[in-house]
Amino acid sequence: MLHQLCHSAGGLMTATGTGPLAGVRVVELAGIGPGPFAAMLLADLGADVVRVDRPGGAGLGIDPAYDLTNRNKRSVIVDLKAPEGPGLVLDLVERADILIEGYRPGVAERLGVGPEPCLGRNPRLVYGRMTGWGQEGPLAQRAGHDIAYIAITGTLGMIGGVDGGPVVPANLVGDYAGGSLYLVIGVLAALQHARGGGAGQVVDAAIVDGTAHLATMIHGMLAAGGWQDRRGANLLDGGCPFYGTYETSDGQYMAVGSLEQRFYDEFTGLLGIQEVAPARKDLARWPELRTVIAERFRTRTREEWTAVFEGSDACVAPVLSLQEAPQHPHLAARATFTAHGGTTQPAPAPRFSATPGSIHRPPALPGADTADVARDWDLPELAPGPASTPVQEA
Fold first, then answer.
1. Which entry of 175, 209, 372, 376 is annotated as an active-site residue?
2. pLDDT number for residue 310
3. Active site residue 91
4. Does residue 237 carry a catalytic annotation?
5. Of the listed 7, 145, 213, 219, which one is catalytic?
């Protein structure tokens, strides 16, 4: 059943991929943000991910055909508020290895699909919970988004220049780095435990926990006196003149990361300031050094400076836009981005020599795979009824 084929409007597609998680079954209770991205990571690595969508969709108004976090998955629609809804999910859980949910604490329990009934049905199940604040604590029941989660951990306060407020790093640091990646690490570790003869368990992945954990090295530097607890004053936060970004004559930017002496020497030589740059270790003269570097970068375009530093170890790179990045020669050579279904998108990562991941299915349309999942997971009762009617692409 692992490589069973299923039919779709786009032709034949494999039910699962061929990555290292081929054969692992995942039930994802539909949500937004870090939960779906975590499930996508598992699907990219070959897991058979069945997303349980609610009738009417998530309510965000995004065309599901372009929701790339639902690639490589299959979708069924189950109304968890209907009498038969929780039972259908528990039937899926009985056949699964992992469940992922991103509700507020207590919601899954009220819907009848919390850890107790799920683990009661399948004692080896790994029950992954994705929240911002965690399952307990004074803020556990509060609404929130990425920006609030990273704010209270001190992470947001580190990002930005000395003369301005904190800079929002999209929702990458909290939702996806502190949330999705920690959930995936957690559920895979728990799966290893369960498959080694242990019991299933609940994985509580809170974005506040993961985001705080990401700053472990910084906390060590702070304790050792090697980090100042303010923005734009440190080696890695833009405070250092040879670790930051500089505007070019055409209004674009170059990124500089010439931390080590030998890289710095190459950088200043190629930039043409080796004879006039003040000593790099003299922190009192860092403002002067920054001015010298900035003035020099403003004499040429980004393309011209890119050519100057091409092939060097100066640790300098052009700052590209999202649309420019796939065309960069290095990323193109590595196929870091790929086109699937007419949409350019990041390829699965990381890479495996024996069991490579792949993009084998476009984003799952809500309910479109109900019949196939019912067949492949041996759940005929999942298919009948209006709730299984596929949502047509607009």
1. 175
2. 96
3. no
4. no
5. 145
